[in-house]
Amino acid sequence: MQPVLHYRNHELYMENVSLQALTEGNATPFYIYSRRDIVDNCKAVMNAARGLNVLPCYALKANYNPAILKIIKDMGFGADVVSGGELYFALKAGFDKDKIVFAGVGKTAEEIEYAIQIGIHSLNVESEEELKLTGEIAEQLQSKPDIALRVNPNIDAKTHKYISTGLYENKFGIMPDQAVSLYQFAVKHPWLNPVGIHVHIGSQIKELSPFTDTIAFLKNFKQKLADNEIPITQLDLGGGIGINYDKSLHNLQQPSTYIDTILPQYLQGLQTLNSKLILELGRSIVGSAGLLITKIIYRKKTPSRTFLITDAAMNNLIRPSLYNAHHEIYPLTEPNGEWETVDVVGPVCESSDYFAKNRNLPQLEGGQIIALAAAGAYGQALSSNYNLRPRIAEYLVNNDTVNTIAEAQSIEDIANQYKW
Ligand code: LLP
User: Fold this and answer.
1) Which phi and psi angles does 335 have, rounded to 5°?
2) Residue 337 burial (10 A CB sphere; 0-12, 13-18, 19+)
3) In a mutational test of the pocket of ligand 1, which residue from 45, 201, 263, 280 has the highest number of ligand atoms less than 8 Å from its CB?
4) How far, in Å, CA of 340 to CA of 325, rounded?
5) Rounded CA gap, 146 and 124, in Å?
6) Is the pTM of this model over 0.70?
7) What's the whole-number average pLDDT of the chain?
């Protein structure tokens, strides 16, 4: 079978759809996702979990388009949510309430109440105050939720500092020593059922070693709790498995996620702990499946630079501006001319509005269309209306068909939110 993305007759195809042909009837910019890629990523997780007691959940924050949620739900996944809004979307997309976990450092009383009322799988609690509030709300509702405490293991995830979460300097989780006394509090609480330990050390992790460190931490910490007569039956491992953002034009066949290489060893490493394992994967499920398709509006030369100015901007995909993230660029028609070094930038009034700096690309002219690769996770989900730029459409490819899964916003849609 052809890889999901490939050139055929000099045109870039996603599955069996020519993207160049698609742009002829549809305005750019837009996001487009491959159903097959998402399904394959889910299957890779299922393979890694085969025969083990694992609940794979999907972290909605990476991409909450309902059509995408339904694909993942149909693969048997649960959901990891971090807000009342995400919980609402997860339920509306049909995720089983028994497979929903709720994390987040700042859950409001309303959100905690909503989750307990629904009766989700478990709440991941991140502070002493939140634990006490959860106990009070549970008592009012006369309902005893399963909870896990998110523990901060002080492990370096070896990733960008903005997406590192498991170090003591980060706002996430509870210090292990304090966590022991909070578990003791929870065990005695008539309306709390502490069943799990939650950890999430960061995102876009490409090596095994931070996960091996996490295994060692969990073994130790679970034993410490056992010594204090606190029985733990589930370990929520968070997300964090990275994807390959460097898959170049000439090597579209390389694998895109690190699910196959990291996850089986991670899960196997925890088998001796006889616990149910929960995963909260976002990027590794949807990241490789999405492209941001954008047209070059202008080409502009200055003494020191050549700029390609696109119709998409940082408000559509903020990852390069925010994390200096690298997204490969594929022209929709296969290039055969000269290559040159360019900056690819958007129209927003910020110098940080760029997609690539000093990038070697085939020579491209105004009017040509490019794809920003691996934009399925934290792309549209992190978009905004900055510079009053309406949110763009999203399409889903399934073999040779394309469906609109989110309409583009119009400027009237935005205007209607305001009082005039
Ligand atoms: N669980 C928790 C508690 C999390 O905080 C996150 C991500 C996940 C699971 C999912 O992690 P993943 O499998 O996607 O690595 N906007 C950034 C990434 C932020 C990640 C936030 N937390 C980016 O574009 O790289």
Assistant:
1) -80, 145
2) exposed
3) 280
4) 21
5) 9
6) yes
7) 96
Cα–chain center distance at 95: 17
Model confidence band, residue 187 (pLDDT cutoffs 50, 70, 90): very high
Find the catalytic residue in 188, 302, 349, 419. Answer: 349
Centre of ligand 1 to C-alpha 142, Å, is: 33
Please spell the DSSP secondary structure of 305-374, one letter per residue. -EEEEES--TTT--HHHHH-----EEESB---S-EEEEEEE-SSSSTT-EEEEEEEEE---TT-EEEE-S
H helix or E strand, kind and range, residue 35: helix 35-49
Handedness of CA 318, 324, 328, 330 (dihedral sign): positive
The predicted structure's pLDDT at residue 159: 81
42 is catalytic: no
Sheet holding 11-14: strands in order across?
5-8, 11-14, 17-18
Instruction: From residue 357, give the alpha-carbon distance in Å to each of 99, 201, 313, 343.
Output: 42, 29, 14, 4
Q: Are 268 and 398 in contact (CB under 8 A)?
A: no
Residue 63 CB burial class (10 angstroms; 0-12, 13-18, ≥19): buried
